[in-house]
Amino acid sequence: MKIVFLIILFSLLQSSCISVDTITRRQSLRDGDVIFSEGKRFAFGFFSLGVSKLRYVGIWYAQIPEQTVVWVANRDRPVNDTSGLINFSSRGNLCVYASVNGTESLWSTNVSDRISEPTLVARLSDLGNLVLLDSVTGRGFWESFDHPTDTFLPFMKLGFTRKDGLDRFLTSWKSPGDPGSGNRTYRIDRRGSPQLILYKGLTPWWRTGSWTGQRWSGVPEMTRGYIFNNSFVSNQDEVSFTYGVTDASVLTRLMVNERGHIQRFTWIARDKRWNEFWSVPKEECDYYTHCGVNGHCDPTSSETFECTCLPGFEPKIPRHWFLRDYSGGCRKKNRASICQQNDGFVKLKRAKIPDTSGTSVDMNITLKECKQSCLRNCSCVAYASAYHESKGGPTGCLTWHGDMLDTRTYLNSGQDFYIRVDAEELERWNRNGSSGKRRVVLILISLIAAVMLLMVLLFCFVKSKRHRRSSTTFAPVPVSFDFEESFKFEKDKAINRELPLFELNTIAAATSNFSSHNKLGAGGFGPVYKGVLPNGMEIAVKRLSKNSGQGMEEFKNEVKLISKLQHRNLVRILGCCVELEEKMLIYEYLPNKSLDYFIFHEEQRAELDWQKRMKIICGIARGILYLHQDSRLRIIHRDLKASNVLLDNEMIPKIADFGMARIFGGNQMEGNTNRVVGTYGYMSPEYAMEGQFSVKSDVYSFGVLILEIITGMKNNAFHEESSTLIGHIWDLWNKGEATKIIDTSMDEDTYEKSEVLKCVHIGLLCVQENASDRPDMSSVVFMLGHNAIDLPSPKHPVFTAGRNRGSENGAWLMGETGNSVNDVTLTGLQGR
Question: Which end is more exposed in the chain, N or C (fewer Cβ atoms within 10 Å of the end residue's Cβ)?
């Protein structure tokens, strides 16, 4: 009996789980065996991805329920089954074999010198680094940190050594289910002043900019010693970048994904999920040479385009710029003559300096000396400080001697960059700068005078207010009384600071006492009336009914939210009115009503050609992107639909109705609610069934909007063999017949089918079932604005025909409400 027990015990020790952190020279690791780092943070062994039977050897987080692989050994040569083996070769290399009797290794540490030490081991550290070393002397021979795959862990290095030529860089996976070497690489450029560049194949895609002494110039979000400690080294031995964490309990990783994004994640233990802490590229100006050679990108520009030419340059092909094609870049102005006696420099503030791969670097001179050096050299076209944020002040000199690539402006970051121009150009820029300062002074004086005048008028207004109240009467307004809520609202200082309060009598007069002739329409919230203020301004009055489901909190939420937002694709609020139990919002009047008035009506739909529809799609996308990313607040709308998109007289879309919107913190991406509100057909599945909402919930709604705009049909009122419009489109897409869904009211000669199909493709990407598969809005805006990009294949959308998900799904989309959807109880489920 003892012998049997010993045999079983020996077997257990040799197989399922090896509890130590090392593999000795005499030990093998079979498929199913795992070694753990000393603190059990990381694990090493065989693994598979998804339903694939292919087996890979790698390192992953051991205590995280969501499989997160950080390094793969045999990424391009997987084992076909579970018969793989890991052990040491006779030369001392750690190898992966396809079977126990395999002779040819699928992967090897490939140390060139023979390692004869009998105490050689492979040890997994708590940093996630697999190291080959002598267990007695501690001498190292090889480590996985020198050969990263797609993930950059704390204390790992990216860069190269000058002596042995070791180059550490990241390479993306081919796809989420295939860790093979993809076509995105992230590495330090060896030329000029060092910088990290993300490549698509051999083409630069995004770059960090040069090192400023504290951070990368093109990464304004980089913190100084808050969560991460960043370190850059450039000397005679190596050029490398590394980072650490100030709190050892923080789990973080940076990775390059197959779509060409660099993402930093942190683990939220409470929610048991990875949170995207930072990601690039995220806007047009981030992409390498978005504005072409000698072009400059400014996303905050008040001009028509975000791209302009650098001082002394002009568009090479002006007509292309009006078509928003900046690829031709800029050229020197014809009259410009450089290297004259009166040459000077125009300072560009808060800039991401141009690509430094071709710069000349001198770390031993000051910025003043750098200017003189540039003036003496006729080939020098610009200069900047090398380390403008070093602890002792700006040091070093960078000079450019050819075309300048990939510059942009930041709102609160960047550095000064000096561009060489001739005397005439310098005079013009100085004159513009002086006039700009004069304009600022005049504006300030005007504002002070206006404030003083306003105070006088306000005093007069308050003085006469009581008299007007007693002398002016209107027909009775049918309202009930709730003085408590009205009083609380008027005392809310946060509201009163944001926008003015209108009196009920003023609004009643403007709308002819809420006459039916002035009624523009009605929704679940109540009627909307057209009105005219005493000064002649036309307004739209949203009068909330008692049965709207929107109480005082939702009303205050909408007021606070929309009063803080300013974007051409968001409706502009002028004020509000709260008297007695009346709650009203006063908006700018938009003559073309809402989007659903056009796309869902036969006659009006014919007025929307493809150019107008594309303009509306792009405008809505830019508005949502502003809410998610570019506004002062991170906002999730939660009720995007055609009736909540208004159109002005130029058919520019304006997103409206923020009563159900939620404000998130800067790094918060999602939330939960027990009160699910929204519109059937537009709600994402995770929100409708589980109360989980995120920016991807709005992405889903936007995808539905795209498909409705293209087809002219409602998603939740579609009656074909598929349960929904989305299901119908998906079926035709898979048959290669997606052109059949294009609205027949559009003349085929007025649009390119490829452009329409691209929008169908983007719409299907947005309505994928899993929120993580959907693109974010910055990616959507980029895809809409670029034709020459490869879009990923969409996965099966949610709730389409032929999916065995239960009959409740179709009922949910078609508006058949109940207390439960797919056995998930929804508290306060409200369809509108």
Answer: N
